[in-house]
Every structure is written in C-alpha cells, then in structure tokens.
Specification:
The protein is of the alpha+beta class and about 700 residues long. The protein has 17 helices and 27 strands. The longest helix is centred in the first third of the chain and has 29 residues.
C-alpha cells in the first residue's frame, strides 16, 4: 500500500474510490475522533495576574479519544503504519480542519505508531469529482492551524458557557436538565421577545375600498383599482361611517383615466446558494427543518452531485461559469445568454473559507422534475445529453438538487423583462345626504412579461423558490389611455385589522440570525434543534412558540447576564472567532478576555440571585388519591398535573390540551399530542379506539 487517504464518512470514501486506483486505500473516521470529555469541563484553566493588571487566563483543553471511535482509530493506525503517505482529505472548513489535526495527532504522537510528520499531507477540495480530486492531490498542503484554532476557540468558549451556567440554572430554577448556550440562548431570546410583541399588540381597524372597473368598448376584461385619496386627502385609517359615505359616492361617480405610465422592469436572478439561503429556501418551499436540509445536502455532496454545502460565499469558479454559459447557449439559445458572465459579491468574512457557492458539479445532471421540464426548452435539449441524478438517493435528494441546479443555472441567464403599467383613476361623485361633489383618486397597476429570461427555469412563474405559494403574479391591465371613460362594475369595501408581527418559522429565524451575525450558517441547524430538544421552544404549525420554561430561563439570563446574551455582543464574538480563522487574533487572548468578567458574574449571581419560582397555576380539580388540590408542574417532557401535597402524595397525570374541535370520525374531543420526536399534532382523545389525527387544525374536517 503506497497511500492512505482519510476522510470523514463512508459515503465520501466510496465516492472517492470511483476516481482513484488500487494504490490508494481510503478510510473514514466516522466523524470527530477526539473531543472534550462528556461529563466534565475538560479544560484546565490557569490564572495569571501581574501586579497592577487584570487577571488573564490560559486554557488547556483535555481532549480524549471518543470511545465509539476507538476501533476505527485502531484500524486507521494499523493501516497508517504500513503506508508510505497519509493524506488527510477531510472537509474544507473549520470542523474538517480540526478532524484532520486530531487524526494527525493520534497517529504521529502515539507511542506505538509515531508516524513521522513528513509522511502526512492535507488536501482540500470543494467538490468530489475526478478533476477536483486530482488537482488536490497534485497540490498537497499543511494543516491550517488558524482554522483549527478557530474551531478550538468556539468549542472551548461554548463549553465554558455551558458548564458554568448550567449548574447556576439548576440551582436557581430548580430543574436539573436545564442548560444554557452562548448562541442558543440568544436565539431563544429572539423568539421570546417576538412572542411578547405579539402579546402586547393591539389590532387597529382600517378599511380598504376597491372598485371593479371595465372599459366602455364592451370588452369583458375588468380590473381593480384601490381608493387612494379623497379631495387630495390620503385615504387611511378611516372608520366604518367614513367608508360607507365613500362607497355611496363611488357608486354614483363617473370614472375616467387620469394618467397612464408605462415603464420597463428588469428582474435579475438571485445569486447561487449559500448555506443560509439554501436552508431558508428549503424551509419556504418544502417546510423542511434546517437539520433535514443539511442532512440531504451532505448526501448530495458526498455522492459527488454538489459542491461543499457549508459556505458563506456566492463566488463561482471560472470553470463553473463556463459550464453554466455553455448550457444556456446550447439548451436555451443565444437570447438567454448574457454578453458577459454574471458575478456575485460574497459576504464571507473568512478568506480561507470563502470558497465556491453551492452548485451542481455537472450541469448536465438534473433532478428528475427538471429533466422532464428541460426537454421542452429547446429542440436541441435532448441531444445536449441531460440525465437525472440517481433515483436511489430518494425524493428529498431530488427536490434539493433541483433547487440547487435551477438556482445555479438561472444565475447565468439574462434578466426577465416586464412591461409595468401604473394608472391613476379619477372619479367625481356626490356624497349623501347633502349632495356635495367629491373627487376620488384611485390607483392600479399591472404587468406583462415581455421576455422570461431566467424565469424559463421556473415555468415562467414570478414566484420562484424563495416565494410562498400564496404569492401571485401581478395581473395584466387592459390597454388604457389618458382621459378614457370607464364603467363601474361594483364597489368592494373591506374591513381589515392590523396584524401582529408573525412568529418566526425556520426560514425567518435563520434569516434573522444571519442578519444579526448570530452563529454561522453551519451552526443554524444544531442551534434550532437544541432549543427544541431543551423544551425552550416548540414548533406549532411550523411556527416557533416559547414555552413557559423558555420564558423563565430567558428572563433569568437576560436579567443577570445582559451583556453576554446581548445580540450585539454575540455578533462581535462571532467576528472575533472569524478573526482567529484569518490569523488576525490569538485564540487564548479572545477567550481570556471573555472568561474573566464572565466567571466573576457567575460567582456573584450564585451568591446574590434568589431562586425563581415557576408558577404554572393551580386548578379546581381534586387529587383522586387524597382529595387535595391539583397543581401544574413541569418536567423535561412537558407540563403535568401533580398533587399539591407532593411528596406526601405522589399522584400525577398528563394534561390533555383540548382545541375546541370535535373528532370528525367519532365526535370525541380533539386534543394536542406530540410524536416521539416532539412534533405537535392533533389527535382524538378516544385513542386507541379512534385513530383520527391531523397535523393542522384546518385539516380536521
């Protein structure tokens, strides 16, 4: 054996083996091989204080071999001892760099193997294709210790926060399963604050008045115009009485076109996907969690279909741009091909990680749905050689790949062109009862597509994958000219109320986290999973609601640690971690600057803060065992009924939350239930006699 290549996963190893010959042995670590111990802090902290200066600290992580990786590491050691060269081919990001470093450490520092340093090399590639692998093997590198330090800094920082804060929460709130996290607690704070905005919101009534108008030439096509002002005064926040007067006047008014303006609008394609925008899009279009999106993307990457899926960059290589332009020219035709390539500015702050956007490795391979659609694009399309991805990867892989493929292909296609029309309508009518003449001003607009451009990949729909299905295209207006008379068909007043801000869903929460600089795209999936696993928030009909526990923990942390769980502070800390990756800052210094004030605050709160009582309420129900009142208690599994005399009486019972709807099958009450994974649904209270269930209230029919 001449060369051993080490990767993380068996799938990645299998894909690499398709391109490499028998001289290479490819082994997978199955993920991380060393980590901090599970049940203790695992970090030695040494305080250093010079006279007249604040304390500084040194941190020494005590990494251990992960026990479930013991046999894997043993086998890798055996193979490495017989290899002339060991190539570390883990993923091209901080986590991958850390895995590469730790496997190098275990092989080179082990007494039995002690493999010399000159037999190791590191290769980096962002797509698993034959060309990319061969280019990487021809340009071996050393382990990037700046990225290793950045990963180590994040790991140490999060361990310090979690292990120092959690005992404080246990002591002051009295729940032994509680935990806090530097980033997860800020995410909970955002959800709690949004919930309180909703609770404090007071709806305000307003009225919208639309009129349906038609041309006088007898054509059947009508259009809607909205009342904008009366006698030059803007129409807004009007009462029911004022609306009735306006409707009365409009019903007896004469309508004409005051002014028509036409202009050309161009709609440009979006940049290719980053991790964040891919997660948001999958949440909007498919209702997927970030975790599900990343798991599917991992499969596509390891099977060689897409480039690396953890990236903040919208950059594309010249080869990728040429590949896309070649496809556009051959499959769609010259009108769709821009004169020059389109480039997109990236927001990535870490130069070493600013690799390519997420894109297909081969644009001739499309999703099953895209393959059927693409055949209708051009007579030459079939001969262009398009083929679909492996159907054995499953529906999720096909759906996500189709998103990536369309987004990448569209980003190198000409913009869509629309003719946009704005029209001002005037009407003069009398308002009863005094018969006063009033002038009404109404507005309407419409669009007509002149050239579909990149929208050809979306069946010419304007609502692409970023939009929801509820969004509709703007309707086309009939031809209108200045001074033209119009016939009134009907007046349509609508009572409306202002709406509270919407609760966050997966897409909107990820978007906010990115905008605020909280965490990084690769961490969004574990953050969102963790705050649900801890029962701090729950997802109800795809929206995040804070639990009573989440509110209590949040209020405690914000009260006693306002700086640490401040959104701005958390974002600045992320920037400093990026600076470590860029080699601009030293990780020990960053962690030391955080740790000193943090540990002082912990000690102070332990001494001074009072215990928090979670009053979930009493009930008018009596304990069936002893007759005393039942109260509501909380466990890590949720709320439940308990006897108020506990521990003298140990009676408990589940709380059945009714929804005020009868089961359509048997007539029993429908109640809120949860799956084993904590996902909420609605089920019949007569279960198991009646098995009717639904995910949404509106599905209960």
């Amino acid at each position: 054996m001449s060369e051993l290549i080490i990767v993380e996963s068996p799938t990645k190893a299998h894909t690499l083996s398709r391109f490499l010959g028998s001289n290479y042995k490819i082994e997978a670590t199955m993920g991380h091989v060393r980590d901090l111990p599970e049940k203790e802090l695992g970090i030695k902290i040494a305080s250093q204080k010079k006279e007249g200066e604040n304390s500084s600290y040194d941190f020494h992580p005590e990494y251990q071999l992960i026990m479930r990786r013991r046999d894997r590491v043993k086998e890798i050691r055996r193979l490495a001892a017989k290899s002339e060269k060991i190539t570390l081919a883990t993923d091209p990001d901080r986590e991958g760099e850390a895995i590469a470093y730790h496997i190098y450490y275990l092989l080179s520092k082990n007494v039995k193997t002690h493999i010399p340093e000159d037999r190791f090399c590191r290769i980096v590639f962002h797509e698993i294709t034959e060309g990319a692998i061969k280019r990487a093997l021809s340009a071996p590198q050393k382990i990037n210790m700046q990225l290793v330090d950045a990963q180590q800094a994040r790991r140490v920082l999060d361990r310090l926060v979690g292990y120092k804060l959690s005992p404080l929460l246990w002591s002051k709130i009295g729940k032994r399963w509680l935990s806090a996290g530097r980033v997860q607690s800020v995410a909970v704070r955002l959800i709690v604050e949004r919930e309180r905005e909703i609770e404090a919101f007071k709806p305000q009534e307003y009225w919208v008045v639309e009129v349906e108008l038609a041309k006088t030439d007898g054509s059947k096509k009508s259009f809607l115009a909205r009342l904008a002002s009366i006698d030059g005064k803007k129409w807004e926040w009007q009462s029911k009485e004022q609306t009735e007067l306006a409707v009365s006047g409009l019903k007896n008014a004469d309508f004409k076109v005051a002014k028509v303006e036409e202009k050309e609008l161009r709609r440009y394609p979006s940049p290719p996907f980053t991790t964040s925008t891919l997660q948001q899009t999958a949440a909007n279009r498919f209702g997927w969690s970030a975790k599900r999106t990343m798991k599917t993307a991992q499969t596509l990457y390891e099977e060689g279909y897409i480039t690396y899926h953890r990236t903040d960059s919208t950059n594309l290589s010249q080869d990728a741009i040429n590949m896309a332009r070649d496809f556009v020219k051959n499959a769609l035709g010259k009108p769709y091909l821009p004169d020059t390539p389109k480039f997109y500015k990236t927001k990535s702050k870490v130069a070493q990680e600013a690799h390519e956007a997420i894109r297909p490795t081969n644009i001739k391979v499309v999703g099953t749905h895209d393959l059927q659609r693409s055949i209708s694009w051009s007579k030459d399309t079939a001969s262009y050689g398009l083929k679909s991805i492996d159907v054995s990867l499953g529906r999720d892989a096909d759906l996500l790949y189709s998103l990536v493929w369309r987004r990448f292909s569209a980003c190198q296609i000409n913009e869509a062109v629309f003719s946009h029309t704005d029209a001002d309508i005037e009407a003069v009518g009398k308002i009863s009862p005094d018969g006063q003449l009033v002038q009404y001003q109404l507005k309407t607009s419409g669009e007509k597509m002149k050239f579909d451009g990149w929208l050809v990949l979306y069946n010419k729909y304007q609502n692409t994958e970023e939009s929801t299905d509820e969004e509709e295209n703007e309707k086309e207006l009939p031809p209108l000219t200045d001074g033209e008379r119009l016939n009134l068909s009907q007046v349509l007043p609508q009572q409306k109320f202002t709406q509270p801000p919407a609760r966050y869903n997966e897409a909107s929460l990820i978007k906010l986290l990115e905008e605020k600089g909280i965490g990084r795209p690769s961490t969004y999936a574990p953050i969102i999973s963790t705050i649900q696993d801890r029962k701090y928030v729950e997802k109800i009909e795809k929206r995040f609601h804070p639990t009573d526990l989440g509110k209590t923990v949040n209020d405690f942390l914000v009260k006693y640690f306002p700086d640490i769980f401040d959104i701005g502070f958390t974002a600045r800390m992320e920037d400093e971690l990026d600076n470590i990756a860029n080699g601009q800052m030293q990780w020990q210094r960053i962690i030391s600057g955080f740790y000193g004030p943090f540990i002082d605050k912990i000690d102070k709160v332990f001494k001074e803060a009072e215990k928090v009582k979670m009053d979930l309420g009493t009930t008018d129900q009596k304990c069936p065992k002893c007759g005393n009142p039942l109260v509501i208690r909380l466990s890590k599994y949720g709320r439940f009924y308990a006897c108020s005399t506990f521990p003298a009486c140990d009676y408990t019972n589940n709380i059945l939350e009714t929804v005020g709807i009868k089961c359509p099958r048997c007539g029993s009450e429908m109640i809120v239930r949860k799956t084993r994974r904590g996902k909420q649904f609605y089920g019949c209270s007569s279960y198991p006699k009646c098995t009717f269930a639904a995910w949404k209230k509106e599905d209960i029919k």
